[in-house]
Amino acid sequence: MHGIRLGGAFVGQSGDRLPGVSKHQVSAALDYESPLAQSLSFHAHADVAYRSDFWTETPRSADAVALSGYTLVNARSGFAVDDRWRIDAYVNNITNSQGISSYAYTAAFAPHNHAYVVTRPRTVGIQLNYSLVDKK
Prior knowledge:
The protein has one domain (3-130). 0% of the residues lie in helices and 57% in strands. The chain contains no helices and eleven strands. A five-stranded antiparallel sheet has the order 3-4-7-8-11, with no helix packed on it. A two-stranded antiparallel ribbon has the order 1-2. A hairpin with a 3-residue loop joins strand 7 and strand 8. It is elongated, with a radius of gyration of 22 Å.
């Protein structure tokens, strides 16, 4: 059998997925912009990103954990004035997906030996931008 041995223990073989790498990842974005007046325009943006399940270690490793895939959906829209001012309303993680993007197990975290990095929860806000560079 061909594979990878670490400290005498069999931990992987040809064809195993690399740790942290999903079998499938897909993302898409859509942008729209429309002038409303001479110095006023409306813009909108939406994006979606999907990643399938993935392993934290090689699948046959004793510490391997399979993490579930997840989808993130974001959207924003707003107005631009004179190409310098821009105000947007946004919602990130519209579906409030609770994906885990990484995981670690270590004795240093005792008595809670598991550490997870999770996706940010649904976030709603308003953003105001001013550009110091004249785009005209």
